[in-house]
Amino acid sequence: MQNKAIGSDTQAIYARIQQREIEQIAQIAINQKIAPLHTLAALDSLQNDIYNLLGQNWFSLFIADDREINYTTLFDSKKRANTSKDRSRSCKDQFFKECIHAADPILHRANDILKRDSSFPTNFFSSLQEGTKAIVSKAFRVHDQRWGILSLGYKRLEHIDSQLEYRIKNLIPQLGITIGNILFYERSVNAAMINKLPSSTDLVPPALDYTKEKDRSAPQIIGESDLIQAVKSQLKIAALSEMSLLIQGESGTGKEVAAHLVHYLSPRSTHPLIKVNCAAIAPTLIESELFGHEKGSFSGAVKRKIGKFELACGGTLFLDEIGELSLTLQAKLLRVLQEKEIERVGGNKNIPVDVRIVCATHKDLLAEVKTGNFRSDLYYRISAFPVTLPSLRERKEDIPHLVQHFLIKHAGESTPKQLGKKVMQRLHLHSWPGNIRELEHVITRSILSTEEPTIKKIPFFTEAHFAGGSRAPDFRLQSLADFEKEYILWVLRSCHARISGPNGAATILGIPATTLQSKMKKLGIGKKFSHSKE
Questions:
Q1: Which of 2, 192, 263, 294 is geometrically suited to a Cys-Cys bond with 273, CB 3.0 to 4.6 A?
Q2: DSSP for 137-156?
Q3: pLDDT tens sequence across 378-407
């Protein structure tokens, strides 16, 4: 009996894993179809694909205006046309506010909609007349500039189960990017027609054309994993506070993006976001860079310079890699944080500053405090609200979302490329020591090196290794043949001598197994690698 129970448990686990893989494949497929769209008509043509994923009998998209005062219907699947000319509704309506404040999709039943008729868009009632019994809605950000809402109508839906919630949440990130691209394209075309221009390729829509308000356009934090959702929640909470924020995380995890988002969501968003990379400025110049200097204060100071603190007045100052500051400058920074005033180099006047400080570092600052390399009083001053960004290897379920984002971002005016299934599997196997920055570089190289619409090979040119592999050797100056031999040996060791298969050396190197075996023979690589079991 016990064996039967164990067997049934194993089958159940296998069935769940198999179902999850089917879900992921379906999700990737629909995202790849949605990614290249640039018109609402093209979105209309995908109604059957969206129905196969979400099972709705009707869906609609709503979009807020640039200032998020009113919203209108952008798309209605029953009308099969752009309905943005419909009467606009206030973003203060209860329906809109409920959607943007809800972390999960929300369900409105027909009776609830009829009771609060003034709170809902007019096309909800048309849908109810056609037999819709429940409407599920989920808000999303469009290029992180305005709110959009996806509403799905169902004739039979008792509650939002975990599968439907999972599918909606995984569709939302790509949908937000695509809707932003559609708005960009249509606004560019309209501008070209108005100005009688032959091409719209050089046009930038007003919503994206920032000059003085450039920092108000916040980059997206891509991902739907539990880890990154928790980080987003922390950043939203931190944005409403005036406390100093410390963003920690490995290099390439998106610390600057997080700082930009905090500024964008904060009451200071109408004022400047000034960024300073403390590791990129010479120690002799960093004080002048931060606090400014008076004319003649040192050799080369031919005129007064305004420092970053004064430039950021009323806004946010982002100090990246703060762990690189000298102890002397740390003491001066602590004084500024305590007194809310600065003194220019060579000056004798205290200048009041109103600045919110956001710091970032890849170092363990608490460990630096213990070793005496960082002041403890400054650490506790800047870490009033600490946020740690997860590494990419800790949230690999976000890789498909990030890949789609980078494929669109680096496509330029061309149709975004798609990623082959095996390539996506390889991306999940990689350990990503360079995190999101490394992933973006890999995708960019793949786009440049692939002429076909689908990317089937990924060029890994870094010292990054696959999970379970050894560190790359420190290659010395040598002939190309010796270099190639040493590199192939390293890859073989990382793969435990496996040549072919999904985790084999040939797959990692992006060449056929027969070609690899031929190279091994030519380079004199021993049989202990070529005769391993596959």
A1: 263
A2: EEEEEETTTEEEEEEEEESS
A3: 998 898 888 999 999 999 999 999 999 899
- Number of Cα atoms under 13 Å in the Cβ half of residue 87: 6
Which of 220, 277, 264, 267 has its CA nearest to residue 240? 267
Mode of pairing for the β-strands spanning 106-109 and 316-320: unpaired
Residues 462 and 472: their CA atoms lie apart, in Å, by 9
CA distance 62 to 124: 12
DSSP string of 123-141, one letter each residue: HHHHHHHTT--EEEEEEEE
- The span from the CA of 515 to the CA of 520, in Å, is 9
209: its two tokens: 């054309």
Calpha distance 198→192 (Å, rounded): 7
Q: Which two tokens stand for residue 355?
A: 């600045």
Distance CA 430, CA 392 (A): 10
Residue labelled with tokens 């924020």: 245
Residue 47, classed as helix, strand or coil, is helix
Whether the per-residue pLDDT at 202 is higher than 60: the answer is: no
Neighbours of 374 (CB within 10 A): 22
Q: Are 258 and 266 in contact (CB under 8 A)?
A: no
Q: What is the tens place of the pLDDT at every residue in 99-132? A: 999 989 999 999 888 887 678 888 898 888 888 9
pTM equals 0.50
Kindly tell me the sign of the dihedral angle through the C-alpha atoms of 23, 173, 401, 169: negative
- The separation between CA 433 and the C-alpha centre of its own chain, rounded to angstroms, equals 17
Go through the chain and tell me how many residues it has: 534
One-letter amino acid identity for 148?
Answer: G
